[in-house]
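A quick aside before the break. I want you to see a complete sequence-to-structure record at least once, exactly as it would be stored in a machine-readable document. Don't worry about memorizing anything.
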Amino acid sequence: MIACILLPRFELTVAAGGLEAIAGRALAIAAEHRSAGSGLLGETSGGAEAYGVRSGMPLSEALARCPALELVSADPMAVASAWERTLRTLEQIGAGVDPERPGLACFALDGLRGIHGGSDELVLAAARRALDRPARIAAAPTRFCALAGALATRPRRTLIVRGSAREYLAPLPITLLRSRERTAPLVGTLERLGIATLGELASLPRSAVADRFGAAGIGAHRLACGEDDPPRPRSVEEPLVERFELTEAAGGPALERALGVLIDRLLARPERRGRTLRAATLGARLLDGGSWRTSVTFREALAAPRRMALALAPRLALLPSPADMLMLAVERFGPAGGEQSALFEQADQQRRARLREAVSQMRIAAGADAALRICLLEPDSRVPERHMMLAPFES
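That is the input. The structure line, written in tokens, reads:
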């Protein structure tokens, strides 16, 4: 059996300051901080949904339906921190948690029954007691079926699906496939074809679905038939975070210098224990409210400050507004001592030696001006002669 923990409107609740702050109000996460330039709303409150405002709706349409709609700045840094605390709380009861997104996680009940009394009900009760906010909790044979049960139950209620997952899913609407990123684009096409329930999709031959929709169709058919991959418990890493307070709204070179300080501090932390970094998270607290956050996965595990700066600095251009604090955190570690810098330096020296020899032979054969390099002078000048000049190449 698989348990599903669903915390409705998790991102909006954190960004607004708690459940009491969204009660009875028409709120939605502002578009500009959620995805730059998309113009689509994030999560919405129950008061906004009463006017027909939904997540993913264009801001102009939402304001036309609900003129009193209040926009809340997205705060992904606070959401990530609150979600991490929630996951660690669930892990304290022994659960191997597989987080799908903030507010949604699942874990297997096998192995927990003996710890919490011997039944699924007692395990789910222990999970509910560990949480600090109302949650929809359900258990079913598969992850997708457990999510469907959690969506069908009420907050503070628990649902356990006994029997076949396919039978439980058969009468449910095809729109449940929107809960998976891979199968969400198929919902509109399936509805136009007259397929309204998961049972109707499951009754089709899998070969026909695969021929029409490819790998995504196979995945949707598997879900409708009650088949799903088991949860994959996350590997828990110790938090390694560095923050830099900016005295005033900074940008450009000042932000890059602050990033360099963060990288040096992070690599100097004794908790790193000589390990390389495979992925990192760059975040900022914005002056006009809310925060910004992005994840960067390096091509290879590394611990070189210059190479990290080259990968992280371009992301600073994505900041939606000025920031007064920068944050850099390790998302995933690599192996210890995985970067063999001595070999790179030796290869670079050999390449430079071959280049010098080639330039020397070219100048002997064709003269001193045979090898030149381009120097940029005034790239923005309207006079072409001032853009660049040629100078002797020095290797």
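Two observations worth writing down. DSSP finds 15 helices and 13 strands in the chain. Confidence is low (pLDDT under 50) at residues 33-38. We'll return to this after the break.
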